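Renewal narrative, Specific Aim 1. Our central claim is that a sequence can be written position by position from structural information alone. The example that follows is taken directly from our test logs and has not been curated for this report. It begins with the structure tokens describing the chain, in the order in which they were read.
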């Protein structure tokens, strides 16, 4: 029988906290409801962790780190991660359905993008467990000097709601491969996937306390985790605003921090680009996951010479995007994650008009069937006549809203593209390879896509420049975030130290 419950059951599901290998109620007994964003109906009732539960979870993670897990071989850790990847794959359909019910993303994305990448990340880091090595250093004199690469310890991980399971995978997989233990706080909007993952973690046979999952609110559970003195490392993905709070809280204990924050990525189309492809790339850049993507290509820079041709095609395609029931395989865009996010996006329509931009496509909630009238849907939207200094071009809207800005030449473009507090990602569409690589050097961003957009692989690093954060997730760079280096000196001369005399 499948370990994951069916998404379709009509009763709201119930979840407890996962602490020390067991499912338990919150100390306070409190719970919170998480709705299905497509209908507004309750999907699940979830135990609400706060400070007291964080204390328990951190203590359990510490015991596990000092205990069985700390002594486990890299091979055994790798095997457990492989086992988990396998269980996720076996349950991928049910997990994808739940992810869609909890977050609102179209099932074709949950099933064919999110879940395969979750599995890929666990597999990639499962293989990495046995490849984490120290070095021998050629120091002067009669010494052997070598390094040990050791886990950091107990890690607090706080994740957002836009890719609930995938963000859990990006965080958990490298931390566990490197031998750390974890307390993970999912976003309040989307706790379901992480709680199902907890069942699979238990089933895979991880020792008690290695992974603890504590859904709850940012201001209580999240803040308690970020400021906990017995946390060795805190990893956060979410808004730049909260990222700063995390860094401040961590500073009191000098807890190590990695941050993956917001973005306002330039997606750039030069006149020599394959326009058809670039239009598809612009769509992928801003409508994928309802635009709730930190690396979304939300500033679309068009070469003035192709602006009209491009916009005509972009409009035609944007108006054809199928918005609606996310559980339908034909649906291309589901609802936004919450009514708060929907309201936030709507407020930017007013901001755009007030600033003198044009609402060229969309700008409203679509009219849908009765069943989805309480859902948080928004149309694919394009603002044209945007200037880079406008708020809509500088602030993260985090919705399916493309802001079109024009440019004259490459110099003008680079200047505008870099005029932002963010630096997570960038895209460029051109047939000129020299220009493409020059751009890759000149743009201040952690990821650059050339004639493609939103491509990811577990082996390729991801993270931000400037206020988009610090640290790189995925690939071997993620292992750096979750290990620390110890330098060991051994005297090979056998002679007494002469310095202070005999
Ligand atoms: P957020 O507040 O930054 O939430 C991210 C995570 O941090 C959640 O788990 C949240 O818990 C937690 N959190 C919130 N306040 C905290 C605190 N004081 N201490 C510790 N943890 C805390 O993001 P949001 O409110 O969900 O979305 C707001 C905006 O953030 C979006 O509109 C978007 O611009 C941006 N965002 C960016 C990303 C990204 O991938 N870069 C992802 C999501 C959102 P709760 O869920 O309980 O609040
Ligand atoms: Mg929040």
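The sequence written for that structure reads:
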């Amino acid at each position: 029988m499948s370990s994951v419950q069916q998404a379709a059951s009509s009763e709201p599901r119930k979840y407890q906290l996962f602490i020390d290998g067991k499912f338990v109620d919150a100390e306070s007994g409190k719970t919170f409801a998480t709705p299905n964003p497509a209908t507004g109906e309750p999907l699940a009732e979830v135990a609400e962790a706060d400070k007291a539960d964080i204390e328990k979870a951190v203590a359990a993670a510490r015991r596990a780190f000092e205990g069985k897990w700390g002594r486990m071989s890299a091979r055994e850790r790798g095997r457990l991660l492989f086992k988990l990847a396998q269980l996720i794959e076996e349950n991928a359909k049910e997990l994808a359905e739940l992810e869609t019910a909890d977050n609102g993303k179209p099932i074709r994305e949950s099933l064919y993008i999110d879940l395969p990448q979750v599995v890929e990340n666990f597999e990639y880091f499962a293989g990495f467990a046995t490849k984490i090595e120290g070095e021998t250093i050629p120091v002067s004199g009669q010494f052997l000097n070598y390094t040990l690469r050791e886990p950091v310890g107990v890690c607090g991980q706080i994740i957002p709601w836009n890719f609930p399971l995938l963000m859990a995978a990006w965080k958990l997989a490298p931390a566990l491969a490197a031998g750390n233990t974890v307390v993970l706080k999912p976003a309040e909007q989307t706790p379901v996937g992480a709680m199902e993952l907890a069942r699979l973690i238990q089933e895979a046979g991880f020792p008690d306390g290695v992974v603890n999952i504590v859904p709850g609110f940012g201001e209580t559970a999240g803040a308690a985790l970020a400021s906990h003195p017995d946390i060795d490392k805190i990893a956060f993905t979410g808004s730049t605003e909260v990222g700063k709070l995390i860094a401040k809280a961590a500073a009191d204990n000098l807890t190590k921090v990695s941050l993956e924050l917001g973005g306002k990525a330039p997606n750039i189309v030069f006149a020599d680009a394959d326009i058809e492809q670039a239009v598809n790339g612009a769509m992928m850049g801003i409508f994928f996951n309802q635009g709730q993507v930190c690396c979304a290509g939300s500033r679309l820079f068009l070469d003035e010479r192709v602006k009209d041709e491009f916009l005509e095609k972009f409009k035609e395609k944007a108006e054809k995007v199928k918005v609606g029931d996310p559980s339908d395989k034909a649906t291309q865009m589901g609802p936004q994650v919450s009514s708060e996010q929907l309201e936030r996006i709507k407020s930017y329509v007013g901001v755009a008009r007030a600033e003198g931009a044009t609402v060229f496509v969309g700008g409203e909630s679509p009219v849908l069937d009765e069943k989805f009238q309480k859902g948080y849907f928004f149309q694919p939207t394009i603002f044209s006549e945007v200037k880079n200094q406008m708020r809509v071009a500088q602030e993260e809207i985090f919705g399916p809203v493309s802001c079109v800005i024009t440019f004259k030449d490459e110099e003008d473009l680079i200047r505008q593209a870099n005029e932002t507090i963010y630096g997570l990602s960038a895209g460029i569409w051109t047939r000129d390879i020299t220009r493409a690589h020059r751009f890759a050097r000149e743009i201040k961003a952690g990821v650059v896509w050339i004639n493609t957009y939103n491509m990811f692989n577990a082996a390729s690093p991801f993270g931000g420049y400037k206020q988009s954060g610090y640290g790189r997730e995925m690939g071997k760079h993620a292992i750096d975030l979750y290990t620390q280096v110890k330098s060991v000196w051994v005297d090979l001369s056998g002679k007494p130290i002469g310095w202070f005399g005999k």
